Amino acid sequence: MDKLLVCGGRRLAGEVAVSGAKNSALPVLFASLLTDQPCVVRNVPRVMDVATSLRLLEHMGVEVNEEGGGCLRLRAAGPIQTEAPYRLVKTMRASFLTLGPMVARFGAARVSTPGGCAIGSRPVNLHLEGLSKMGATISLKRGYVEAQAPRLRGAFIHLDSPSVGATENLLMAACLAKGTTVINNAAREPEIVDLARALKQMGAIVAGEGTSEIAVEGRESLAGMDHTVIADRIEAGTLAIAGAITGGDVRIKGARPEHLEALLGKLEEAGVAVTVEDAALRVRGTGALRAVDVRTQPYPGFATDLQAQFMALMSVARGQSVITEEIFENRFMHVQELVRMGADIKVEGRNAIVRGVARLSGAPVMATDLRASVCLVLAALVAENTTEIGRVYHLDRGYERLEEKLGALGAEIQRVPA
After folding, report:
1. Which pLDDT score, from 0 to 100, does residue 194 have?
2. What is the pTM of this model?
3. Is 117 a catalytic residue?
């Protein structure tokens, strides 16, 4: 198990490229289960969640070939095992996205209830209720969800909340259902739009992606695809905050500003200069940071996956800010570690009251989940002395070569054995 050592006080400057979006690549990879034809997926990040997904797909019988440069070729043509076992699902919640494609194509699926970051309750009831409306028989046995349907049928499905995972699972399942499926109150994230683009390449008939209502006309079968995954907006946002917190001047190549409007608006309120130049997002510190309130919301609101990083920024801003977490009820576990570094933060229910301090201090800290881990890296960039960050396997789940990218911008950061 590795740890990171970060010596703070280095101003970041230069250009860095954004990797492909993990949260887009995973559902696109699982969409390969919908067809027996070859599927080529490009710009796939080399992160642990992708590696786990590929192990799961290979276990199920999918042929997987890595062609280099983030390009994968998959084919689910041979005998497919319609079970996703606990040992492969327990570390990554996205594995549950095998359920919809498998029951849609093979008429049956047995998938372990999911694991992943312990950031609060994320029930799968919306996935199961939607599949049930499409005609699937659902049962829960010994920690596994079992679903059966000779063929799914189109249905009107209203989601009680705009769940990204439920939207993705039901969208994929609907592509092979008989008739038309309407997903109401659907998630609107760019990753949903990217998945729809991949499905359309496969011959799916999808309309309304990126809005709150998606309509899918089911097909008898789907073809293969050759799809390039979008840039990771969460990594881009994290790198933008890294530039801002160090008072630096960072160009983020490949970032999609239209996917980051809520964050960029808050950075500008905080006194950070944000411009778009030659297909790159430029972030420049212009002096003392100002405290800004933030409330996480479903897209296009402020992303919960950027909340921890923004809290690190606010911990060294002038004044008091209130950060409200509306998506997950247990996503403030990074607070106690920031406090160990000298931050002044008090949690009251879903609100974190952050009073900016003049400086943070390096300390041994421990990552508790994926976004909390990178929050600590950002805080360490401006802390006095050296910060030792443990459990960085959380970081490796979702960030590709982050220490190399930050090091190229001038950060003093190294990975060492724990």
Report:
1. 98
2. 0.95
3. yes
